[in-house]
Each structure stands twice: as C-alpha cells, then as structure tokens.
Amino acid sequence: MSTxxxxxxxxxxxxxxxxxxxxxxxxxxxxxxDDGDPGGGLCILRGCMPSKEVLxxxxxxxxxRHDPRLDGALPDVDLEAVVERKxxxxxxxxxxxxxxxxxxxxxxxxxxLRDTATFIDDRHLRxxxxxxxxxxxxxxxxxxxxxxxxxxxxxxxxxxSADVLDATExxxxxxxxxxxxxxxxxVPYLAEAGGMDLTVIEHDARPLDEADPPFGDELLDYYRxxxxxxxxxxTHERRVEPTDxxxxxxxxxxxGENRIVEAxxxxxxxxxxxxxxxxGFAATGLNPGPGWVTDTMQTRNDERVFVVGxxxxxxxxxxxxxEQGFTAAANVRxxxxxxxxxxxENVHHHVVFSGVGVLPYARVGxxxxxxxxAGVDHxxxxxxxxxxxxxxxxxxxxxxxxxxxxxxxxxxxWQGLHxxxxxxxxxxxxxxxxGLDVRELPDxxxxxxxxEILDGLFREAAAELSG
Length: 467
Known about the structure:
The chain has helices spanning about 15-20, 40-45, 50-65, 80-105, 160-165, 180-190, 215-225, 320-335, 370-375, 390-395, 420-435, 450-465; strands at about 5-10, 30-35, 110-115, 115-120, 125, 130, 135-140, 145, 160, 175, 195-200, 230, 235-240, 250-255, 255-265, 265-270, 270-275, 300, 300-305, 350, 360-365, 380-385, 400-405, 410-415. Helix 1 runs parallel beside helix 8 and helix 3 packs antiparallel against helix 4. It has 12 helices and 24 strands. It starts with a strand and ends with a helix. It is of the alpha/beta class. The protein is globular and about 70 Å long. Helices cover about 30% and strands about 25% of the residues. It folds into 3 domains: about 5-145 and about 275-335, FAD/NAD(P)-binding domain (3-Layer(bba) Sandwich); about 155-270, 3-Layer(bba) Sandwich (FAD/NAD(P)-binding domain); about 360-465, 2-Layer Sandwich (Enolase-like, domain 1).
C-alpha cells in the first residue's frame, strides 16, 4: 500500500526540494499543491535573484562615481531598462523551476494541483473543490511581508521591497523603516540608482545584529560617507501621517525626545513572517508560534505534519529552506518505515549584499561574540582590507575580515565585510564545516587576487597559536 504525501507550496525552494527527493522513493504517492501566480518561489520572483539583478546596475554606477581615474559625465541608471531585464530573467528562472516540478507531475505517482489548500481538520485538506486525506502533509508556503502596526500606517502609502524591485521612478526623498539584510541591500540602491535623499531608522546602535560590533560600525560609516545616507541610530518610530503634498511625516523618538522627519516616500524593509494565514490551522490541533516546529521539521502537535522553509519561522534563507526540505523528505520516509529520524543542524552561513555589492558582508560559523557566549576557547584575528595591496589596486580598500579559531587550531568562524566577501563565503564554509586546522591550510594565493586577505588571516592565526 502506498503512502500519500501532500506538499503545499511545491514551487518554492523548500517545497520543490521535498518533491524532488520523495518522487524517487518507492511506495510514495505525491500530491503537489501550489496556487502561486505564476509560481516559482520567493527567491526567484521577489527575493535574492531580482534584488541582485537591480543591485548590479547600481554597483556599476557606484564604481564609476568612486574611481578618480575615470573622466567624463557620470551615467544615470536607466530604471526602466533595469526592471525590464530583471523581469525577463526572473521570468526565465521561475519558468525553469515550474518546469522541473511539472516534469515530476508527469509520473504516475505524482499529481500537481494548481489551487489553494486549506485544512478541514487534522487529517484532511480541501484543495479547490476536492478533499484529500494524505498520510503526511508538508507545508512549504514561504513568507509574506511584515509591515509594522504603527499608528497612522494605514493612512499612508508604504513601499515594500517588492515595490522597489518593480519601480521605474522614485521620489526625491525617502524614509526607511527596517535596516536588516533587506534594508542594507536596498537602501544604497535607492540612493545610488534612485538618487534619493534617505533617512533610515535604526533601533540599535549599529546594523548587522549577527556581526561583531566593528563590522556594523564600519558599514554604518560606509553608508553615511559613500552614499550620503542619514542613519538615525537608537531611534524608534512612534507614528506616521500623510503630508499635504502627498508625502509622509513620521514622529520618532531618539534620546528620550520626539522629533519629526518628512519625506516623499515611506519604505518598510521590516522583515517577513510565515505565510500561514490561509491554511486554516484553527481547524486543527496545530498552534504556530515559537518552537512549534522541531529540528526534524515535524510540528510538535502532529508528527505527520512537516513545515519547511520560511513557513516555519526558523531562518528565512534559501539554502536553509532547501536543506530543510531534504531533511523533511528523509524523515517522511524514515517515519513511514519506523526508522530513526535525522535532525537539521545549520552552520551559520549568511551573505548580505551590502554597499550595492561592493562591500558585502558574509559570516560562516562563529563570530567572536557567539564563540564567547558559547564558552568556546578561541583566539580572534582581524585584518583590514586596506592592509592588502590588491584591494587598493582595485580601488576597493574598505572593510575588514576576521577569523575565529579554537585554541586547538580548528577554524570556528569567519566574517568578511569587503569586496568579494560573498564569493569567499563558500571557501570558508568548506573550511569551517569540515573542521580544518588553520595551520594546515595552504598558503598558495596567486597574485593579485582578493582572497589574499584569507591567507593573511590564516597566517596570523597560525602564528598566534604557535607563539
């Protein structure tokens, strides 16, 4: 007798990963469900792919503006051309994702339903005008925009990241709520490509919560100096209202006092929340909230319901979503067969394309702060990009790198805020996840390449351990 598995959100990264793994398992009957229009997943349609597309245009202008060796008029970014090409590419990418899932649906054991799924009770799903009773249900419905419930917010127009990616014109000035990874990527885009005068509200003393303080301080100085962005730190929004000329007026609190900030447009880069509202969990015993999904990707209230990707609220990152999908697929099979289940363990691995990609931030494994909080014996070495000649020769001498190494030599973590840090993250992921000894890493960079900063960190850490 076959085991019936329903995957709700099959076109997303997590859902597609589950579908691809389970489609090859003997004795599994799959119902794939997705009501996206056109469908293809957040990363492809509204996330990492289109954002990198538009950032690249701003990066080229920024490089020209900051290179004293160049002469002549500074070009403007053609926003219509940027959006047109972004749409062309994301349409192709999404079609490729849909085609991969549609190909699975050609199999006798797989059915694809392009409709909305809702729980009727713990065991039944209504999909369009049908009712199905799967043995297992995998929820992979992704996430949706999280706009803060600020007094007056319903009276003004709020632009989200999705709006920015589609915009072919911007106002002269903007007010930004949210300075997490979305804000850090899109704020300099608005300044460089949109030519906007921006004011950013930052609740903490610095951005980059996951980073050691020097990285947030460096990025803050960079945004203020290189993009002329006003960042109000340790400041909190209190209320908003429209202005007579169609703009927005915000009251904020800083240093215990209220002040007024006005702009043409209001942007909310205030994160995302799991997209669960339409699933009808009230008809079930499921109770979404902190800790409701375990590391096996099963819900605590029902071991036959799995939740993966952004929908579980654990970590809204593409590679995490895919890996969680693989874990869920393995555990559906293991649960069916009465075998031990595996847990998903994620080594911290984030990349933020800050500074329009010129000054990206990347972290793999421990920061100095997280290693200290975990009680791990370690050393820390830090190196400024300006200390490596190749960064100077490429006119990108800003930023720094940091290595966290156990006292036994094991590389525990790395952070980079500098040119090409995004590309170096994969190398450092291999180093950290395989537990390599810093003293055994080869020092073989060929000149001139930006990864020399890694060699410098390796050498300094090895020397400190030896000394």
